[in-house]
Specification:
Chains A, B: This is TetR family transcriptional regulator. Two copies of one chain form a homodimer. With 198 residues, chain A is mostly helical. Chain A contains eleven helices and no strands. The first copy, chain A, has two domains: 57 residues, Arc Repressor Mutant, subunit A (Orthogonal Bundle), CATH 1.10.10.60; 120 residues.
Chain lengths: 198, 198
């Protein structure tokens, strides 16, 4: 295992530059099917017909792979948070963050399985600015109704929007799903519902 | 490992009748901390100071243990579904189910980590009437607004209420949390909000 001969037998070339992205894509699919802790580097290797050594060329641990999956999503979340924080008025800020979070969840189905996974939360908390981001995200939604009621509303909306972008919503068109998610989040938070365009 | 001598060294007696319940309680704590797939029978044995053979006396697999954790929760969910289905009017049925589901989630924090876990969903689907229950539960909430919008609302509320009963809500009094969860669910679903009692 891990010898040049074993690598040469693999059906794809693990050294190609797009191999890293293929590993990430397969990891996402397996996380969605088996959860993060239920996915091993060996399973990812098997799915691609690689040796485990070929995976090691790109990622030494499952945690590094999770970081590569989650990093770009967190970066986009941070952008949405920073932009929301610059708006005037609690309702406008909450509406902007809700829209940005729903877009992220619809575009990254893996959010549905990662957002509620304690193994993921623990890992992210140890290695990234995750806690601070979640706190700012929560504050943006909860400030519409300061106090515990607003905190619960914010938590329901974040968990609900994340979870609703998972397999149950797979039959819906993405734009349609996004519209319904934002509408439901606005109702739950007590934000104004814009009049329909038609 | 597994010899009578090894069992005798364990700090608690694995053959005592309450050992089964202690195993379930420890499994719940570890599922909440590490997710289902991130919890091994070995970890449960270590937490209790048992040998793995002592665990086998009660549960042969992690799946059997999950079944023992989830079974009573699903039984209570089924009762709430059956009772809700007997009411007249879509709003009354949805309100009853929402209340019952929120009570289950607040009383069983493990719901927050199990509800969004694909490894759990896969196992339950293979061994129980889980799919049929989820479908009936969804229908009770979604019938308030038939069509895809109602389906999305129902999914957001179920995922949101489940997720909001997790660690983020640990600081709140249970009755207070329950009240806020039901209130938020009603707003999201478009149900009538009863006037406050005070």
């Amino acid at each position: 295992m891990g010898s040049p001969a074993a690598d040469a037998e693999a059906p794809a070339d693990p050294a190609r530059p797009d191999t890293r992205q293929r590993l990430i894509d397969v990891a996402v699919e397996l996380f969605i099917r088996h959860s993060f802790a239920g996915t091993s580097l060996q399973m990812i290797a098997d799915e691609l017909g690689f040796t485990k050594a070929a995976i090691y060329h790109h990622f030494r641990t499952r945690e590094q792979l999770l970081d590569a999956v989650v990093g770009p999503i967190l970066d986009r979340l941070e952008t949405a948070i920073v932009e929301a924080e610059q708006l005037r008025g609690a309702h406008a800020r909450a509406d902007y963050l809700l829209t940005g979070f729903a877009e992220l969840a619809v575009q990254n189905r893996v959010v549905a399985v990662l957002a509620a996974d304690p193994a993921v939360a623990k890992m992210l908390r140890a290695s990234r600015k995750w806690d601070a981001l979640i706190e700012r995200q929560m504050a943006l939604l909860a400030d519409v109704d300061p106090g515990p009621a607003g905190m619960v509303k914010a938590t329901v909306v974040l968990a609900g929007v994340a979870g609703a972008s998972g397999p149950m919503a797979a039959a819906l068109d993405r734009d349609e799903l996004l519209g319904y998610l934002i509408d439901t989040g606005r109702r739950a938070l007590g934000l104004r519902i814009p009049r329909a365009k038609h």
